[in-house]
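Lab meeting, action items carried over

1. Structure of the two-component assembly. Owner: GW. Status: complete.
Input record:
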Amino acid sequence: MIATELELKQAQDEYASCLERERIRILVCAGTGCIANGAMRIYEELTRLAAETGDLVDIDLLMEEEAREGHAVVKTGCRGFCAAGPLVHVEPAGVLYTHVKAEDAAEILQATLQGQVVERLVYRDPATGQPYPQPEQAPFYRRQKRQVLEHCGSIDPERIEEYIALGGYQALAKALREMTPEQVCQEVMASGLRGRGGAGFPTGKKWEFARLQPGDTKYVVCNGDEGDPGAFMNRSLMEGDPHRVLEGMIIAGYAIGASEGVFYVRAEYPLAVRRIRIAIAQAEEKGLLGDNILGSGFSFRASIKEGAGAFVCGEETALLASAEGERGMPRPKPPFPAVSGLYGRPTVINNVETLGNVPAIIRNGAQWFRNLGTEKSAGTKTFALTGKVRNTGLVEVPMGCTLREMVFDIGGGIPGDKRFKAVQIGGPSGGCLPEEMLDLPLDYDSLQAKGAMVGSGGLVVIDEDNCIVEVARFFMQFIQNESCGKCVACREGTKQMLALLQKIVDGKATMEDLDLLEEVATVVRDASLCGLGKTAANPVLSTLRYFREEYLAHVQGRTCPAGVCAAFRHYAIDPEKCKGCGRCARACPAGAITGELKKPYVIDQTKCAHCGACVDTCRFGAVEER
Amino acid sequence: MVGGWCEVEVSEELTAANDLQRRNANMLVAVECILARHGYRRSELIAMLQEIQEAYHYLPEEALNYLATALGISPATVFGVATFYAQFSLDPKGKYLVRVCDGTACHVKNSQRIYDRLAKKLKLREGRVTSADGLFTLETVACLGACGIAPVMVINDTVYPQMTPEAAEAIIDALLQRETKAQAESASVGERNG
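Predicted assembly:
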C-alpha cells in the first residue's frame, strides 16, 4: 500500500534497487505478433533453462532477499518489430535477436552468460542484410523517437513495480501535490498536445471545458476502440505499458474533477483487455486507485468496457451509446460529451495514446513537449507501418517526419524492388497519397490540406502490384459494412459508391459512372452526421484526385494496370502444352472450356468469367494468363 | 427452487420435448446468474450478451427474451443491440471459429485468396458460413491489429501469422485429422462399453 508521496518515492527506490540486482535481463517480446510466432514457448524455455543455473530471479524474490542477485527472464510488450518476431532482447548488452525459436533458447542463454553474442540470430537490416547487434544503430530505430513507447519492450507490463521503478506515477504525485486541476489543464494546453485519435482537437482545451462544467459526477473515458484496419498502435501501448495510460487517465480525472474512468477497448484485443485489467487491479492494491490517492483527498476508480465489434464506436458519441449498452449510433453535437456524455454527465474522451502522453508532460513540463515535433503539432506520434514495406512494425517519430523518411528510411523501402505506388494513411477515413507527396511532413495540418488525415496512425504502403481502384473499393466495402445506418446519405451513399466502384473493377463502368461517383462522394461527405460518414468518401476522393489515370485505364482503356482486377484478365490454353485431360473443363464454373479428351481444349472468351479456376487446376501449366 | 420443474413425471414420448425444456431451463439459470453478476444493470447489456455468447457460442433466442424481461426492456431492444455488433451471432457457430483477417495490411497481401481457398475447402456455398459437419465457421474480420505479421488467420484464440492459402489449408487439415481421430476413439470406447 502506497499512501503518501514519500512512500511512493521509497517504493521507487526499493524497486529500482531490485532491478539493479538483475545482472542480466532477457526480455522476450510478448505482444500479439510475437506470441503468434511462438514467443511464449521461448519464454518458458528460457525460464526453465535459467532456473537450472540456479540464478533465476524475479522482482518478488529480489524484494524478499535483499542481497540476492541473478538473471531475470521477462515478458514485455511490443518492441515494434513484428515482422522479425519473435524478438528477444538482452540487457544490459543491448543485443536484439530476431526470428528466435524455442530451440535457440539454450544457445542464447549460454552465450549471454559468457558475455558473447549469437551472431546468426542478430538483427539484420532487411534492406541491406547488414547485422546490427545493437538495434539502436539500425535504420529502423535510428530515426525514431520513442517517447510514448519508451517502456514498451523493456518492462514487464504485468508488474506495476517495474513501472514505478522507472518513475511511474510520479507525474500523478506531482499533479496532486503541486498543481490545482486548473493548472493541470493549463499545462496540458500549453504543451500543445492534440488528440491522437485522428481529429487532433487540443486536449487541454477539452479538459478545461469539462472542468468548468457544474456537477459532482464526471467521467474520463479512454477510447481504445482502435477500429481502423491496418492500425495497432493503441493495442501495442495498452499491451506494453498499460500503467502509463492508466496514470494519464487518473491525472485527467483529477484535472476535470471526475471520480470514475472507463476504458473502452475493442473485444478483438483480448490481450490488451487482460493487461489493462491487471494494471487496474495492481494500482488498486497499491492504493494508486481508490479513495484518497497518495493522501491528497482525491479519489478515482477505473473499469473496463469491452466493445463488440463496430467501427463506428470509435466516434465519441457512438462510443458513449455503446458504453451505456445501446446500439453504437452517433448523435448530433452539441451537446458535446464534455457537457453531456456518459449517462448524461460531463465526460472527457481521450485516445489511448493521448493519455499515454500526459504523464511525461506533467513530469517534464509543457516546454519540453513543445520542443518535440512541429509548431502546430507538438510531440511525437506512433504509426503502424505495414503493407508492402520491408520493415513492418510499430514506429514512433516526432511530428513532422516526412513520408519518405517513414517509408524508405525507417521502413527500408519496398521489398522485391517493386515500385512505390501510394501510401494509405489514416485508415478508411484517410486517403491515398502518391509518390509526389512523399516529402509531405506528417502532421495534422499538412495532411488535412492534401485530403488525408493522420487518423489514429495507420500507414499502409501500396506498391505497383496493388490496384488503386480495388483498394478504394476495399475501403468502401468496409465503410458500407460499418455504416450504422442512421443517416440516409451515409447508409445509401456508401452502398451506391460501392456499387459504382464494383462496376469499375468489373470493367462495366462508363465515364458517366465516374462523374456520378464523384457527385455521390461529395453528397455523403456534406450530408452525414458523424466522422464516419463525413470521411467515408476520402479514399475515393483522394484516389480520384491522385490516381485518376488508373480509374480511366479501367473505364476507357479496359485494362487494370496492376493486373489485379480479374475482369480484365484473359486466359488462353497453349495447345502445345495441353494434354487434353479435361480437368480445366470440369473445374470451369462458367462452362467456357470445351474439347475432346487427349486433344487440346479451348476457352470460349465470350463465356469466360475470368475466375482463374483453370489456371489452378491445370497440372501442365498450359493455361496462360494475360 | 432451481430444477423443481424437472421432477414432473412424463411419458416416454415426451422425453425428447422434456430434454429440450430441461436444456432451456438450465440456460435460463445460467442467464440469471449472468444478470445477477452484473447487478441487473441495463448499461451492462453488451457485457451480458458477451458472456452468453461465450458460454453458448451464439445468442439463443430464449436467452435474449429472458434477458429482456429481466431488464424490463423490450425484446426488440435486446435484438437491436445483438444485431448491431459484429461480434454477436444469432446462429450457432462451429466448434472452430476460423477468422481470416481482411484488414488493409492483410488485404494488400492477398488475404482474400486465403478466404476463398478455405471456403472451397469447407464446401461453403450460397452464403453459408458453417461447414455441414458443424465443425468450422469461416468469417472475415476487419482487423486484428496484427498487421506486422500479415496476412493473419485466427482459429478460436490462436493467431496464425504470415499465412498462405496452402498453409491455411494444412492447418484445417490438421484440425480435421484431430477430429476424426477423436471421433474414432470415442466410437471405439462406445463399442467396448456397449
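2. GW to write a short summary for the group page. Key points so far: Chain A touches chain B through 56 residues (CB under 8 Å). DSSP finds 26 helices and 17 strands in chain A.
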